Every structure is written in structure tokens, then in C-alpha cells.
Amino acid sequence: MGGCCISTPLENDQPPPQQQPQTQHVERKNDEVKNDDGFVNWPFTEFVLSDLTTATKSFSSNEIISENPEESSNVVYRGLLSENLGFVAVKRFKNTPWPDHEDLEVEAQDAAELKHKRLVKLLGYCSDGDEGFLVAEFMPNHTLAKRLFHQKNMEWSMRLRVAYHIAEALDYCTTSGFVMYDNLSAYSVLFDKDDDACLSCFGLVREVTDYDPRPTGSVNTESVTYRFGTILVNLLTGMQTPPSHVPEMINGKDVTDLMDPTLKGNFSKEEATVILKLASECLQWKNRKSLITKEVVATLEALQSKTQVPSTEVVELAKQQDVASSSQQQEAEPLQEVPSSETIKQQEEASSSSQRQQT
């Protein structure tokens, strides 16, 4: 078989008829599970390499959606399974880190069982020869890295929302038994069609077998807690910094000195101080147990709830309220008409004439 897979949900014990094209089988089955909300009910699927090749136009460079493919041996492509299904994201491992194809299947299937609104859904996998592939929902609105480091137009309220959403996803993964995540960074945070931040599912299927070789009592710069701290610093500064350099970058700094200048002062120092304190704790965390708990999620939820309206809109709203308040005051206490200079002169002459008559 050469390691090739069958594009059919694994729950389906009945193989497709040999005379039926595999892509047709995929489309018919997918039609049963696809709805307007995306691949909500999609069963875990073992894809055929030929289907993924067609979907990605032979893995064309024009379909690459990885933002730093030159820095990684693994590349993510956009793929179109069929016109009625929409796009998917296909991660291609150039060197499969699993000695057995079944290991990739087991890891991928475990990750696919996770279902959370802040976690991108893993749809399936493919293993062919020395290559492995993961297939996930396609997120249309870029990554946190692109928005922060390149577009540079993210408001403070949105940054708080991102921190809250990713903490939600990581807490869910941890409580579900996924305490590790491969290379967590701003590139792992994606935005869905509603512009909500979601955590990529690809990092849950890890390439690193010995993820935390360091003894307890030392900081692991690859841990989920440490990497979440680096994302929080990214949100504060708007800068892309190597993870190992982040502690030095913030050490002894006042939060106002760290803030992204593109915010133009439109942020709450009190809220930013809370984020910086949490980031510092994450970057110094030595326990293998994750710091990202429901208490941390609750703290971030409270922060973003206070700032639902973007900062610039708050300023504009305040101006409108000031104008409305001034208008109401004018209606209650009409201003007296200011006399003209001619009127004042006539009043002075009349007053002088009256004084002469009295004398």
C-alpha cells in the first residue's frame, strides 16, 4: 500500500466500492456532516495523499499560508477539498518524527477529540512514506503575529480579548490531558470568521518526543506556561522577540516603557500592569504543572469585560457625551445675549443725560 491512506472517516467500517473515485466518496460523506457553521460534525478522517495534492494544487507555493516557512521544515498550505466544502489547512511534515505511522494516527486522533470554541478543529491526517500530514479547519483572518508585527493595527481591547481567549483554550487543553504544545507562539494564534482568536490544533500533535528534559526547579522556555508569557509580552509591546530574550526585555521596566507605541496611549495602565505581572510569573514558572488555570482565565475575562469598546471609540463616545451634556445645560439655562458696542454707547449717553437732568 506504500503507506497511503483512504479518504474516509475511520468510524466507517464499510470501505468504498473500488470502482468509485475516492474524491467522490469524500464529498458525499462530507455533505452529510458539513453545515453553515463549518466542519462541526466532521468525523476524524484518514486522507489520501492524492486528495490533498489536488486540494493544494500539488502543494503549490502560491497556496502556502505559513508566515515563516523558510524558518521551519514544516509548511502549512491552504487546500480546497471541494467547492461545497470550503478551504482547509494542510500541515506537511517533511521529516515524519514518528517511527511508526500508527503513532501519528493515535496522536492526531487524540487531538481531534478536543472540541472547544477557542480551539481550531483537527479534521484528520495522512501518512505516506516518510511524510505526514495534518488537516484542520481554515482560519481566514490571519495570525496574531501578522496583526501585531506587520499590520500593527490591533487595539488594546482586542489584545485583552486575545489573551483571554488563548488562556481559555490552553486551560481546556490542560484539563483534557494535553499539558504540552509544540512551539507555542503568536504564529499559533489564528482568527476565525468572527474575528475571535483561536489556538491552532497543529501544536497538539507534537514532533518532540522528549518535550521537557530539564529537571524540576528550572525554567523551561519550551513549556506552555513560559510561551504563554511570551505571547502576553507580545501583546503589550507589539514586538517580535526570541522567546529566550523576553525575560531580559521586561526586567526592571515600567509597563509604560514597554507599551506598543502604535497604541498611542490608548490603553489602561492598570490593565497593562496586570498583564505584565502575569507574564512575569509565566516567564519565571518552574513547576511542570501549568500556571494557566481557571483563576487566570477568570482574571483575564474580567479585564476584557471592562474594555468591550475599543479605546478610540471610548474617547469618541466621551466627546459625544460632553457635547450632549453641554447642549442640555444650554437648554436649561439659556445664555443672555451679549450687547453690541453700539448698544453700550447708547446706554452710556442715556445714563449721562439722566445725570445732567437730575443736577
Describe the structure.
It is a single chain. Residues 1-36, 208-214, 309-345 and 351-359 have low confidence and may be disordered. The relative contact order is 0.09. Strand 7 (189-191) and strand 8 (197-199) form a beta hairpin. The protein has a 6-stranded mixed beta sheet with strand order 1-2-5-6-4-3, with helices on both faces. A two-stranded antiparallel ribbon has the order 7-8. Helix 5 packs antiparallel against helix 6 and helix 6 (224-237) runs antiparallel to helix 9 (269-283). It is globular, with a radius of gyration of 30 Å. The protein is built from 12 helices and 8 strands. With 359 residues, the chain is an alpha+beta fold.
Number of strands: 8
The biggest sheet amounts to: 6 strands, mixed
How are the strands ordered across the major sheet?
Answer: 1-2-5-6-4-3
Radius of gyration: 30 Å
Structural class: alpha+beta
Note the gap between the termini: 127 Å
The whole-number mean of residue pLDDT values reads 78
* Envelope shape: globular
Q: Which bin fits the share of residues in helices? A: 40-55%
- Individual helix count: 12
Subcellular location: Cell membrane
Region (Disordered): 1-31, 320-359
InterPro entries: BSK, Kinase-like_dom_sf, Prot_kinase_dom, Ser-Thr/Tyr_kinase_cat_dom
Subunit structure: Interacts with BRI1.
Short description:
This protein has 359 residues and is an alpha+beta fold.
What descriptive keywords fit this protein?
11% strand; alpha+beta; two-stranded antiparallel ribbon; 6-stranded mixed β-sheet; 12 helices; disordered N terminus; myristate; kinase; nucleotide-binding; 42% helix; 359 residues; BSK; serine/threonine-protein kinase
